[in-house]
Amino acid sequence: MLTTMKSMKPMMGIKIIKKIAGVVSLSIVLALANISPSLASIKVGSACKKAGITTLDSGKKYTCIKQGKKFVWSKGVVVKVNPPNLPSPSPTPTIAPAVSPTPTPSFIEPVRAKSFSDLIENSDGLTYWAWKLTQERMRNSGNANVEFIIDVGPNTKLNFINPEKAFQDVANFYSSFEQVTKYHAVFFDYKDLQWAIDLDQKNSFNPRPSEILKSCLIQSQCNGGNAYIDNRLTGFTYIASSTIFSNEKIRRMGIVEAHEYFHTIQFLPSIKSQQKGKSVAWMPDWIREGSAQWLSTSMYFKDFEELMNYQRTDSENDLYRNKFTANDVENVLTDNSASNNNGWLAYNVGAKAMEALVVLKGVDVVLDFYVEGSKGIAFETTFENIFGISWAKAKPILATAISKKYK
Fold this sequence. Notes:
The protein has 407 residues and is of the alpha/beta class. The chain folds into 2 domains: 111-140 and 279-407, no CATH class; 142-268. The chain has 14 helices and 8 strands. The protein has helices at 2-33, 126-139, 163-173, 193-203, 209-215, 255-275, 285-300, 304-315, 317-321, 326-335, 344-361, 365-373, 379-387, 391-403; strands at residues 54-57, 60-67, 70-73, 77-78, 147-152, 182-188, 225-229, 235-240. The strands form 2 sheets. Strands 1, 2, 3 and 4 form a 4-stranded antiparallel β-sheet that branches. The longest helix is centred in the first third of the chain and has 32 residues, at 2-33. The relative contact order is 0.10. The model is unreliable at 1-40 (pLDDT under 50).
């Protein structure tokens, strides 16, 4: 049995192999029978197996149709093949050429006049250069040692909240000139007028009640100020600080305070000379008030355009409106008085005259007049000594240069 069984196993193995081989052969035949006709070139009218079947060949679609008793391929129809749906490429951004911003026109400094010979030609730069020289000195001021004593009336509010700063700024600006060692500043409104007068009587060796009254005659005109030095060489200033005028720009900037303290620096050399029994020469009103107005506004208008706007619309409004001529200017420089009906011209025209003189000789020239005057040297002589030209010849040149801006 064992022998028989052994002899049978190989035979069974052969049958199985043959069977598998037969299956494989059948699969190959079937596979060959199902090869897509597209692998061979389709000919129109050639036989096909069943109506309705289609195939693609060389970009054409062929359909099996029945012709009589036969099935044949129809004429091919060209087929448009859509490309695959690929993501659209991102558009290449168009880079605009860089555009440089339009530059803001830079300020071109006017030419600075050097002497009376080119003063008219370069008159457009007088205000600018006088302002610039002031600002330069402000940045390089010294230190002056002055005791400031400030009193404010019981019913008074300060228009400028830090008056001591304005006083100290001017003191430092002219620290190279002798100044008072003590300075009383009194601020008052109309209700405190008598209080201010009483305080003057108390503190001053030479009280001036009439000057205080002029600063505040009635409530609607309580907007003046004055300064003086008594015989003890103590400085005094009385400034009306009225709520009626509190919104005026110059009263909120320290300009009034600077103006009044500057006067004490002007007066001191002559007061000291008088105490020694010497004869002094007092300068014209347009120098006294014009220099104080020039300095105080040039100091506190830090922006040049703001200064120009202030001059056009406030301090020099009448000069622009009336188209002040060279003859008008010369009349003010000849009159020498701030006490007539047009007294403010001594301030406004005087300030323009001082701008020109400062441009020619620097910011100290406004006090040089008073130093020389304290020696008894008259204005005309002092002028010629400083500028090298007589006042008679310089005055019409100065008047023409000033008036050009009002045409």
